[in-house]
Amino acid sequence: MRKKLVNSQLCNLNTSQMYLRQMLTLAENVFKFENLPEYIDVAYMNKVLVREGAIAFFKDEILGILALPFVRVGIPDVYGRPQKIRVIGQSGYQREFDNPDDFVIMYDNNGRYPLISDIIQMSERIALDTRTIDINIAQQKSPRVFKTKQENERSIRDLVNNIDGFENVVITYDNIDLNDTSVILAPAPYVADKIDMHKEKDWNEFLRLIGVANLSYQKKERSISDEISAMQGGTIASRFSRFEPREHAIKEINKKFGTDIKLSYYDGVPSTEKEKGVEELYDELLSMESNANITDE
């Protein structure tokens, strides 16, 4: 029994870790950077932004422009922005900057906090949905608890094992009184389909957090364009919350270090109000909805 409990707990942990890896991969790969300096590791930069909430760009005399995590040194300015920092590399590379003109801080979102805490909680919720579905499906098998005489225990156990082994024919003995055997626990009601719908809502909530447009929902009645626009309002707000600080940092990096870095979203939806207005952004999301082949019930 204890071994079975340990295996169940390990399965719960593995399921949670699986979703955490998948969700971090999505959160870290929403943006597309162009013309980044060759020595900058994009995957590492995205990982630091999601896990730490910020990363520092600076110019090294030998390696060129780098992007590394940092710790604040000293007192920040009146807005809480660091005036002195110490950057730290994986190889033990460290360097301290006393002048804010020598570095640029890029934040993951306008809240300036790491998303990792929110993503961990969401991965645990989705993992709970999945494991609950697993358990509910497992409980749809034959009843698991039987009441019988002690002398019949071995025989009843063999019968149950034959059933679990999908035997077409089960043979027993004349001296086994099956009338003395009763079921005291029936299978649980099937609710996996309902939990699966709840899981989809949790997943869409995560996509909303990282700014990925999603239109996966069940349409109970005809939805007008304004309703669909309102549904995507949270996604658009999250998208601009993550895009704006990156864009601001890139403008400052290009100005200070003479680079030509560009930023966009991978999914092709407009990434700045300068390119397309909010109304045009809504129109494109509506076009995505029409291509999703969602039919009225």
Secondary-structure topology with pairs:
Elements: H1 2-28, E1 31-34, H2 42-52, E2 54-60, E3 64-68, E4 70-73, E5 84-88, E6 94-97, E7 103-107, H3 116-138, E8 145-147, H4 153-164, E9 182-185, H5 192-210, H6 225-231, H7 233-257, E10 262-265, H8 278-291
Antiparallel strand pairs: 1-10, 2-3, 2-7, 4-5, 5-6, 8-9
Helix pairs in contact: 1-3, 3-5, 5-7
Description:
With about 300 residues, the protein is an alpha+beta fold. The protein has a domain at about 140-185. The chain has helices at about 1-30, 40-50, 115-140, 155-165, 190-210, 225-230, 235-255, 280-290, and strands at about 30-35, 55-60, 65-70, 70-75, 85-90, 95, 105, 145, 180-185, 260-265. The strands form four sheets. It has a three-stranded antiparallel β-sheet with strand order 3-2-7. It has a three-stranded antiparallel β-sheet with strand order 4-5-6, with no helix packed on it. A hairpin with a 5-residue loop joins strand 5 (about 85-90) and strand 6 (about 95). Helix 3 (about 115-140) runs antiparallel to helix 5 and helix 5 packs parallel to helix 7. It starts with a helix and ends in a 6-residue tail after the last helix. Mean pLDDT is about 80; it is low at about 215-220 and about 295.
Order of helices and strands: HEHEEEEEEHEHEHHHEH
Radius of gyration: 28 Å
* Poorly predicted segments: 217-222, 293-297
> Which structural class fits the helix and strand makeup?
alpha+beta
| N- and C-termini, Cα separation | 47 Å
Please give the order of strands in the largest beta sheet: 3-2-7
Q: How many DSSP H or I helices?
A: 8
Largest beta-sheet details: 3 strands, antiparallel
Average residue-wise pLDDT: 81
Helix content: 40-55%
Strand content: 15-25%
Number of DSSP E strands: 10
Task: Sum up the overall morphology in one term.
Answer: elongated
